[in-house]
Structures are given as C-alpha cells and as structure tokens.
Write the structure tokens for this entry.
Amino acid sequence: MPVLTLANSKGGCGKTTTGRMMAALLAMEGADFAVIDADPNRALHRWLANLYEGSEIIHKAEENEDRLAHLIAEMRERHALVLVDTAGFENLGSSVAIASADAVLIPCMSSEADLFETRRTAEKVRSLSVTTRRKIPAYVVMNGIRATSVSAYAAQQVQEAGLQMLKTTFGRRADFEAMTLTGKTPRTGEAWRETMKLLREMRSLGVMPEARERVGA
Amino acid sequence: MASCRKHVSAWGRNDVGTKFKPLPPPAPDPANLVELVRRADPTAPPARVEPTVRNDEPTTLNLRLRMSSVEAIGAVAEERGMTMKQVVTLALRDAGVAVAPEDLEDRSTKRRGRR
C-alpha cells in the first residue's frame, strides 16, 4: 500500500544504492513489495534483472511521467509496499513519484552540491504536498559518512535547514559497491546492519509495513 | 481518516497491537496527479524526451550566387557525373552537416530516364 520514493535532484548521493539494499533485505524477509525504477539510466532495474541473486523481486522500469503515475497507482493496489527510485536531476517523473509517495527518503552525502540539492528536493516535497493537499513526510538519510568534521558539519547543515534527519546513517562501505557487481546481498557486516537499522527506523516512523513474519507472529 | 484505517488494515498491524501513525491520504488518481504536478512544476522537463517521428517532406532552398560560382558547381558536376545539387549536398555532408541520405542521391529526371 504505501509508496516510498527515493529522491534527490543530486546524482550519486546513494538513491539507487539505498534502494538496492532495501529491496534485497526486504526480499530476504519475504516482504510483499515491488520496485519501480523511474530513472532513465535504469541502474536498479538492470541490476535486479541481470545480476541480483536472491528471492524474486517484482520490478518495473518507467520514466514517462504519465505511465509512471499509472504504474505506481497499479502497484500500490497490489503490494504492501512500493519502492520508487528516481533520477538524480529535476524532472517530471521524479515529481510524479514524490507526489504519489506516502513518504520520501532523501539520501545525502557530505558535499555542498548534495546539501544544496537535498534542500531543493525537500522543498519540492513540501510544494507537492501543498499541490496534492496531503502531507508527504520527507526524511534525509546521511550517506557516505566518515568520522570527520565534514560529515558532522553536513549533518548539522541538514538539521539547521529544518529537515527531518534519520538516526540511521550509511558509511562508505565496500559491500555497497561489491553487490552491484556480484549480485549478492551482504548478510553480515556494516552495510547489512545499517540497512536493517534503516528498515527498523522507517517502520518505527510508520511509513513502512512490518516484516511479514512479524505480522504473523 | 477512513483511508488511514484502510492502510492500517492492509498492513495488518492490528494483529500485533502496534501503535500506528496515520499515513497521508491516498494520492490523487494518476491522470489528475500528473496534471497537478505539471501545473506545479511547469519548467521541469520529462526524464526522457520521446523521439518525435517527423515527416521529412522535400522542400526548397534558393541560393543567390554569382554566375561564376554556379558555373563552377556545374563544371564539377559535369566532371563527376552528378547533379549540381549532389555537389552541394555532398560538400555539406563532408563539412559535417546532417544532410538526409535522400538528398545525396541523383534524383534528376535524367537519372529517372535511365531506369
């Protein structure tokens, strides 16, 4: 039912990487969900179609804004969760994915361009909330974090901009890169732990359904 | 609030007694949603521009040239056994202009007569 959109008009901030990990771990849980890749590069769709090794994940690619709006509506009727990955530049498809969302996740790295586009994207979410007359919450997840003053400063900038930042952060992990080439999902290690933490936090915020096992328990 | 209850039920959280936070009401229907987004964001481009199929009809290009230039083009055409139009279009193509392949062919009545 809920639609979770990964958005940021800055490319390379970790939207697809986050989506890839979330999808792989949700599949391990046996969750009822679908992935829509709205990025014309189709990196997530390509990975799921050609490299991914694991339980089947329903995935579609659509960048045309009209067809995308219909596809999201159709998928939300069929599945307990729809994950939408968007392109790293401002475009109508991303706006449609945001306007269709029940929550937006904005990955952000520690650079001026990331912070600037994160604020723009959050503003876009606010603007589309007004347009569609529904509150669409946006959560920033800091990505590529290293224990440096730069990362701390970037996180502070996000908070000072009044954006809701998740407690979960992603470090620079070799596993994120490796899985793009191996198709294998990490089952241990920091990349796995951080993604599990993200899923738990999203669930505690009420923007993602519980794992199937837990519902039945 | 009815829509929130619908979401809650679909997630099955009542079974485990979890406390819910209400979800936003459902998004507008797809057709309206795209229209709203286009109006809210009139400068946002599509993620991918669909190729447009254009009917590449023939048209004319009139050039006002010195007599000597026209004679020079005609002489080269005669020498190479091609039309004056071909001399011009082939030169333009060699200069990097995207000339349609049909415009590089000999489509004169003389050629048609040879068929």
